[in-house]
Each structure stands twice: as C-alpha cells, then as structure tokens.
UniProtKB/TrEMBL annotation:
Belongs to the ABC transporter superfamily. CDD domains: ABC_MJ0796_LolCDE_FtsE. Residues 10-241 form the ABC transporter domain. Gene3D superfamilies: P-loop containing nucleotide triphosphate hydrolases. InterPro entries: AAA+_ATPase, ABC_transporter-like_ATP-bd, ABC_transporter-like_CS, MacB-like_ATP-bd, P-loop_NTPase. It comes from the Bacteria. GO terms for cellular component: membrane protein complex. This is Lipoprotein-releasing system ATP-binding protein LolD.
Length: 241
C-alpha cells in the first residue's frame, strides 16, 4: 500500500470487541485498518455487522477488548481517562442519526455547548455563528430545535460537531432520518466540510448510492471488514492492512 506523502492519523491493529461478561458477544474481530487524513470514508454493512461499534472505537467512546488503536501515533491504551477525553475533544466531532440537540437551547447555544467545559482561544459565540452560517442557518440562530426541520436540526448538529475544530467528523447514519432531498443536502454539506475545512469524515450509512460517492468504502459483515474499496471518484490508497 502506498501512503507516502499522506499523514496517517488513525490505525487500528488486530482489534476485537466483545460485549458481556457471562454471555459474551463477539462484535468485532480481526479489524486492521489505516486511515490517512482528510478522507471521506463510508462504512457499509448489514444491520448488526458492527459499523457503529467500529465508529465508537475510532472515536475512543468504546475501548477494544484486544488490539491497538493509534490516533496521531498515540497509543490510546496508554492514556488515562482525562488524556482520552482531551484526545477525543481535539480530534473528533460526532454526528448521530437522532440529532441529540438540547430542546431548551437555541441553535446557537446548542453549537456552543461542547466548548463550555474548555478554555478556548476563540470567541465562542462568534465562532458558533460562523459555523451556523457555514451550514446555511444563520437566520435560524435563535430558533429552538422544535422550530427547525429534521434537516435543519442535523445541520445544527454538524455545526456543533465542528466547533471544537476536529480533525475528523464521525457520523453515524447522519442521513438515516431524512428524506432523500435532505439526505442529499447533508451529504453535500459533509463533502464541503471535507474540502473546505480540512476535516476527514467517517460516515456509517445504509445508503449505498451515497457511499459510492465517498473516497473509500469499508464494507463490513458479521463483525469483520470484508472489503475496503474506492468509491466511484476515489483515487486514494486503500486502507485495509
Ligand atoms: N453495548 C452493547 N452490549 C452488548 N451488545 C452490543 C452492544 N453494542 C452493540 N452490541 C451488539 O453488537 C452488534 C453490532 O452492533 P452495531 O450497533 O455496531 O452494528 P451496526 O452494524 O451499526 O448495526 P445497525 O446498522 O443496525 O446500526 C449487534 O449484535 C449489537 O446487538
């Protein structure tokens, strides 16, 4: 595999994930993957194949049962909980199928939320407003989630994921609750973010047509990576090792 010239930021080596102590369920096995910076990657596979678990492991929300995860050459196993939280904050923004906005806060306030426990060098409100502008919602900044459509709520959630200036957006079925028009809009927004904000995207999806439009597709089945292949326009190195 030729990854010369590309910064490698995520490496998963010999990963397994088992849930349960008495009744054990092997959810992921033999996961070996290298991901270079700033790619748009989709994860496809049947329900229960382990896509969300893989995303949670990459985002350091879950820990592997065995194997190694390196993020920017840092072995996550070596880190304590505070260090993991810092690494997660600096590298990952999360977007979910259900938007998980706080009902009692405005769009702008929802975007600011992830920064509140942190010291930041930028002006929170100004930055949040600029991100709402980026996702096309500056005029809706003072609206509450119930006043926004599903697609608009997902755009707020994407702005919220970007406020920490992450290196990666990890999106778990971001278009899963949306009709095809809004799904297309969210996909195009993620593509724009990849291109303009210098941010990689890893997106779990059931939508094969959208997946084909990403740089690389990781196909999963039964807890294993079956295939890693380029999307239709992808020209980047394959990441399966
Ligand atoms: N915390 C947990 N405890 C026990 N089993 C779990 C846990 N999380 C996931 N699983 C099991 O792991 C398997 C993979 O789940 P996962 O959500 O990763 O699959 P998925 O491919 O994302 O599925 P879907 O497309 O339906 O969201 C499933 O059988 C699920 O029941």
């Amino acid at each position: 595999m030729n990854t010369e010239g590309l910064a490698l930021s995520i490496l998963l080596k010999n990963i397994t994930k088992t849930f349960g102590s008495i009744v054990k369920t092997n959810v992921l096995q033999d996961i070996n993957i290298k991901i270079s910076d700033n790619q748009f990657i989709s994860v496809l596979g049947p329900s229960g194949s382990g896509k969300s678990t893989l995303l949670s492991l990459i985002g350091t929300i879950e820990t592997p049962s065995s194997g190694t995860i390196l993020i920017n050459d840092i072995d996550t196993i070596e880190l304590n909980l505070d260090e993991i939280a810092d690494l997660r904050y600096e590298n990952f923004g999360f977007v979910f199928q259900q938007y998980h906005l706080i009902d009692s806060l405005t769009a702008l306030e929802n975007v600011i939320i992830p920064t509140l426990t942190r010291k930041v060098e930028y002006e929170r409100e100004k930055n949040a407003f600029e991100l709402l502008e980026l996702v096309g919602l500056k005029d809706q900044k003072d609206l509450y989630p119930f006043q926004l459509s599903g697609g608009q709520q997902q755009r707020v959630a994407i702005a919220r994921a970007l406020i920490t200036k992450p290196k990666w957006i990890l999106a778990d079925e971001p278009t899963g609750n949306l009709d095809s028009k809004n799904g297309e809009l969210i996909f195009n927004l993620l593509k724009k973010i990849q291109q303009e904000e210098n941010c990689g995207i890893i997106m779990v999806t059931h939508d094969t047509t959208l997946a084909e439009r990403t740089d690389q597709i990781i196909e999963m089945n039964d807890g294993r990576i079956q295939l890693v292949r380029r999307g239709k326009n992808g020209s980047l190195p394959i990441t399966h090792i």
